[in-house]
Amino acid sequence: MKDIQVTVIGSGSTYCPELVDGFIKARDELHLTRLNLMDIDKRKRVIVGNLCVRMLRAAGMDTVVTMTDDLEESLKGADFVVTQIRVGMLKARYLDETIPLKYGLIGQETTGIGGFFKALRTIPVMKQITDAIMRICPDAWLVNFTNPSGIVSEYLQNFTKVKSVGLCNCPITMIDDVKAAAGENAQVTYVGLNHLSWITSVKNNGEELLYKLFDDDFAPTVMANIHDDGFDLNCVKAAGGFPSSYLQYYYSRDAKLEYLKKCEKTRALVCMEIEEDLLKMYSDESLVTKPALLNKRGGYKYSLAAVSLINAIANDKQEIHVVNIRNQGALDFMAPDDIVEIATMVGKDGCKPIPIPHFDNRHIIGLMRIVKEYEKLTVQAAMNGDDQAALNALMVHPLIGDYQAAAACYHEMKFVHSKYLPQFFMQLPEDCQ
């Protein structure tokens, strides 16, 4: 049983008990000696942290738990650092979702111009975190759940020296759904970028079952944070794979935009309500397990993905996990340093991508390449406060499609988020200081 110390940055997230639940379930293989919970929001840090302590004690675990708002203090002795931050919190997400609608653009927290601004706000903070890791615990692994995970991973793995892996719960949810339909021993090919991914092959005993599943009207579960407009079967067949939930924004763009315009509550407002309900539950000192309401957030199976990955690295398990990692030649149509979301072999040295040879789906190749260019331009803009790179990123993205709308929306959103965008502003407006 491996002894580990874990630091969670953004521990006030109501997802944190999900992570602790994962460590409790893995206690026969991982001895969590210390859990450092770091968050700048004192109220949430204390409420969520106290529940985490009660959960560990109820499970009979002797983990030392600390709670702090001091980043450097939280990193001392860490073997693993889990990042789950939301710069600007849900209020910023609300702006990401609503402002684009005025310009006829989809507002969503991880894709399109909403996800773009989330990345711009997040990358400067991730730099602060990684700089601190290199000073205090340079051998630690950083497991990033912060969205947009693919873009954040593009920054972390190509522009910092920290050992890091990008993680999302979409792959594990999709693959589990497919195996439930095709058999637990089915071999599944998963390919794409974060929130732009497909299952392109499902084999059992050498038999390809993909088109049989199409004909059986099978579809993976839609993520809880996405309104389900469904996928047209002919669209899915033409794409040549089961798409992740987020591809509804690409394949049903007009329907998504109309729904968002007419929706009484944005997802941010719904999440604010769920979060407050959860915090009330977490404040009950008799509660010692994660409540079922947590499943209504988008992080279903988050703990399974995170803890099993940490377990695989800590115990050198040499097992397969789908993560966001440098391509390194696994997909011959992508650059070696492109961050892709594919299967990897995971052990003590990290994640080694498993090649997918002779991949010839031109639809998927085309979308992956163009969205990857958007992601790389976004990282450039976020690092350097580069307006030209920012506008180029938006002009490339398939969900934008109109320069005038993109530019107008960009300038408004840059202003309202200005206090979280120091790279763009030498001096902040007075009302943002």
Quickly describe the structure.
With 433 residues, the protein is α/β, with parallel strands linked by helices. It has helices at residues 16-25, 42-58, 71-75, 89-98, 112-136, 149-159, 170-182, 210-215, 233-239, 248-251, 253-262, 267-282, 302-314, 362-384, 387-396, 403-416; strands spanning 2-9, 30-38, 64-68, 80-83, 141-144, 163-166, 187-193, 196-204, 207-208, 242-243, 319-326, 339-347, 350-353.
Describe this structure as you would to a colleague.
With 433 residues, the protein is α/β, with parallel strands linked by helices. The protein has a domain at 2-166: 3-Layer(aba) Sandwich (Rossmann fold). It contains 16 helices and 13 strands. A 6-stranded parallel sheet has the order 3-2-1-4-5-6, sandwiched between helices. Strands 7, 8, 9 and 10 form a 4-stranded antiparallel sheet that branches. The protein has a 3-stranded antiparallel sheet with strand order 11-12-13, with helices on one face. Helix 4 (89-98) runs antiparallel to helix 5 (112-136) and helix 5 packs parallel to helix 6. The longest helix is centred in the first third of the chain and has 25 residues, at 112-136. Mean pLDDT is 94; it is low at 427-433.
